[in-house]
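Subgroup meeting minutes
Present: P.N., E.W., G.H.
Scribe: E.W.

1. P.N. recapped why we're keeping a running log of single-chain structure predictions: easier to compare across weeks, and new members can see raw inputs and outputs side by side.
2. G.H. added today's entry (338 aa).
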Amino acid sequence: MTNDAAAANRAGATRESAERDVPTAIGVKFGSSRTALVFDDGDAETTVCLPSCLADDDDGEFMLRSGVPATARDAERFERFVRELCERHDLPAESAVVYAMPTVDDRVGLANFGTAVGECGLGAALTRGVPESLCASIPPLGDGIEAVDEVFVAVNLGATNLEACAYRHGTRLLPFVSAEVSGDRVDRRIAEAVEAETDGRVTIAPATAREYKEIHADFGGFEPFTDAVEQGSEGVHEFTVERGVMEPLDDYLDDAVAELGEFFSRLANSHMKTFQLARARPLVVSGGMACVPGLVGELESRLAAELDRPVDVVAPDDPTTAAAEGAHRLAVRLRDAA
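Output recorded in log:
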């Protein structure tokens, strides 16, 4: 089935659902820096991607640095953010919602998350939390939800964590999380590298470093670029970044490959049959770092060298919205099966 045919089928199913006055299907991924939302909207699907922050926050910090609201204050802000999101997009209470959830070991944060979304009037028909990496694997592995019937390994290259796990017919095996390999850490290292490259004359915030990464990073053809900063009484200081972006990204990939090599070794020792079956399937890579041009291909070649075998890596067309899209497809299936 072609992508156009699959999209037409999904749109037709959405129209049929609207005619039967069934609950709206919604898929949501609350990210540390961006939130993605996919929902039924009449005879089509609507995809929204927006910053995970409140416009009137005094401190301007993102809400979910660990993926869930870890404190009471974060939970209050999170609930307000979800309410504003629902109001802005006119999301109905009579809905079937699937949340793409990160792999976190934070019972308080998970409880805060459940309480906050429960207070916002969504999911009256159905509410489920599904691992983010499974949701994000659904779009690249088929036009429907074929991923839940397959055996494969998923890797999430996120802002706050590197996550890896195996899936066997929808069941998650051997979940692994490392905060030592993350997009946030890359941002901090870029800031440090720019300061070192300019002999301490320039300091930039992690938010600026993230912009450098998102705009300029490219494993296939990085080009040095020039920027300028205000230096107080010294006026504007112009500088060129040549190594400060790609060297931290190069180190990030080396660290990610080392962690994944250990993960595959543990998977082989703990679940040999799953390991063998997964070897014949593509490795699914998602998360914000997968947006860096050329990074997925470079990961594929370095991981193949680490494992001493060919590795086939696939990634969603849009890693920033893939988890929400997969969650939406699950919401449609769960709603229609209810």
